């Protein structure tokens, strides 16, 4: 089991707890459109509050690159945060200096404050020592609950964990435990589904997965690159022809590793990339010159589902087809629903993550049924690539001091 300290290892009563969360939530017209990341932080915040600690929330928001940008102020998140938490929070106009000190000094046990966007300071992304010191003035201990930002070696995600005694919050703990049970120490057979548009962004990930799973199902635009590399016609489909060699290398590597790569055997094709474009089913050997592959076909779905029925673990990143354009979401929906059913029946541990994936699972109304859905995008991908995430590594090191 991974070694990091958790909230079980510290008495937070009366302590100022600097809690790194990921409040980088989607917003439209000044309103939060998806509060999932805020909700995930709730158990840790409530636990610290109930134990009489003082919670000082730290987060980035957007990419203001060291400038103060009003449109990227965390003040906008306060109403949703108060609504989800069901309590008032104090907001500090700056995450360091006098503005932060004033709010933090005024906090009583069991109260919560939010400090302004850490990325308003250049020191955040530079992981600069003086900025880390300035942040650390507001806390006695550091707790990280922001797995989704843990791929960044920034001051508030990594540096500060070396400066203050550091602990994993409950969301971080749940995330790490779920991810470990999916790939580090899984029940076999394991299936990985990797979809999305481009192979180029997922080469490392595919290379890592073939050594770890029994079945690697490739979907989405990426599958076209593999089909083309095998000499199949892909018409006008999204395809990275220049990556044919890389795709073939992955196929060779997977064969050596005893991993079966599962590619589509049939496809739904259309001549326009739009919702409800006239479409039909073809075998992947007969995609027409003007066709675009927009989803997997029924035989592919049935094949994937029959393999999945024998798997114990599923890790999923990336949709099969153009899921944002109905009816080309059918392949993704069908497999997602089967995975959800097997999970509910207790036969499958299902873990999914990545921006599009979560949206696709929500659209298929199955996100609640999956064993674990990560809200992380880049961090989830880097973890699938087998990389060490700096924000996680710092927690491990802190536990060894
Ligand atoms: C995310 O939304 O993926 C995380 O909050 C990290 O944001 P970043 O990609 O701007 O570092
Ligand atoms: Mg990102």
Largest sheet: 6 strands, parallel
Ligand catalogue: 3-phosphoglyceric acid, magnesium ion
Uncertain segments are none
Q: What is the count of helical runs?
A: 15
Helix content: 25-40%
Provide the spatial order of strands within the biggest beta sheet: 5-6-4-1-7-8
Distance between the termini: 18 Å
Whole-number mean pLDDT: 95
Shape category: elongated
Determine the structural class based on helices, strands and strand pairing.
alpha/beta
Please give the number of β-strands. 17
How large is the share of residues in beta strands? 15-25%
Cα-based radius of gyration, to the nearest Å: 23 Å
Catalytic activity: (2R)-3-phosphoglycerate + ATP = (2R)-3-phospho-glyceroyl phosphate + ADP
Subcellular location: Cytoplasm
Binding site for ATP: 202, 324, 354-357
Binding site for substrate: 22-24, 37, 60-63, 119, 152
